[in-house]
Amino acid sequence: MSFQDLILVSSATTCLLFVFLLLSLSHQQRTNSRYLLGYLLLIGTVQLVDIASKPGDTLHLLIGPLALMLGPLFYLYVTSQTPCSKASPWLRVLLFSPAALVTLHWLLFKGQVIATPVFSHNTVLHSIAPMELIYVLATISQLRHTSHVLSQTADGSVPVKLSWLNYLCYLNLIILLLESSYYIVRQFDVLPAMNSRALLNTVLQLFLLLIAWRAAHAPQVIFTEQQRQAARQKYQKSGLTPALSDYYGRKLDTLIRDKQPYLDSELTLSTLAGQVGLNPHNLSQLLNEHLQTNYHDYINHWRVKHATELLKNTSRSVEEIAYDCGFGTRAAFYTAFKKHHQLTPAKWRIQFQRPDSVRQSNSAGPDE
Fold it and tell me: pLDDT tens for residues 107-130?
């Protein structure tokens, strides 16, 4: 087996393993992840078709239409996981139209309805990465809009899953930019001749492994309906009615903004609950059911928000700011800050202090 075939088999196996894990979930969970399941299944299928056929074979022609569906499935998966954007039926048709047109073109050619193909198979293969790049950029635009909408809400928090989706988009963006750049420089013979399929599939395998690594280190990104049901059952005997939740939610928000209890590094769930007028169990319910977060992430969100203002408006050291904002250690501050801004505090401050034009051109995410 050649190195190229080994990489193809490895990529296909990784994708099909993901598919198997998704299929093992409950019906509700599978429905929620149907586009991700289709995306991974399609990648694995493309790899298997590439292994089983050679350029010029009829089977090999399937790679183009199948790969052109990756972008639409990626877009639909990401947008289906956000609360502010859903794809209409007409948009779905539009998203898959390039793949449908290529399929129709090859059917007409193979059926001898048209004598000469309008475009070659290689042209289709080289257009896959740029086309998928367009879909990923559209997805990032939707996520930026969603982040902006959520930032205008009462608590201004961004769900953990949204951070995961941003990670997934920018990782995919990097891979596609590398692939598109490779095809461009090859046109000018800048790079030495090499097995392009092996190279690109090696990059794809790296992409899949990074996804697996990220998901393993942040399992909370798969916060499914089944888990929500479990949370509701956990609190079903609670006396915290929807009306009381709204009342105590407003009270908590006022307390956090006016008294800033999160600046106390010794603050605990019990202490905060007493200040709000709830018991710890009911405060945990309020945070989980109505703010979709937990006590630790909620407090760290406000500490990071306060630290951000100090980084912008003062010249105090990062260590001083960390302790003044309620973090017990410098490491805890760095971990929480990077989770919200994808940068260390020091790097974020340097980026913020650049001229506006430079800062905007170097912005790489929704936390600008």
Answer: 898 888 888 888 888 888 888 888
- In the numeric block, the tokens 């929480």 are attached to 336
What whole-number distance in Å separates Cα of residue 122 and Cα of residue 86? 34
| Per-residue pLDDT tens over the stretch 335-348 | 889 888 888 898 99
In terms of pLDDT, which residue wins out, 216 or 25?
A: 25
CA 57 to chain CA centroid, nearest Å: 36
What's the 3-state SS for the chain?
A: CCHHHHHHHHHHHHHHHHHHHHHCCCHHHHHHCHHHHHHHHHHHHHHHHHHHCCCCCCHHHHHHHHHCCHHHHHHHHHHHCCCCCCCCHHHHHHHCHHHHHHHHHHHHHHCCCCCCCCCCHHHHHHHHHHHHHHHHHHHHHHHHHHHHHHHCCCCCCCCHHHHHHHHHHHHHHHHHHHHHHHHHHHHCCCCCCCCHHHHHHHHHHHHHHHHHHHHHHCHHHCCCHHHHHHHHHHCCCCCCCHHHHHHHHHHHHHHHHHHCHHHCCCCCHHHHHHHHCCCHHHHHHHHHHHCCCCHHHHHHHHHHHHHHHHHHHCCCCHHHHHHHCCCCCHHHHHHHHHHHHCCCHHHHHHHHHCCHHHHHHCCCCCCC
User: Are 76 and 111 in contact, with CB atoms under 8 Å apart?
Assistant: no
The string of pLDDT tens digits covering residues 306-354 is 999 999 888 889 999 999 999 988 888 998 898 888 888 989 988 877 6
Q: What mean pLDDT comes out for the span 125-147?
A: 88
Amino acid at 179: E
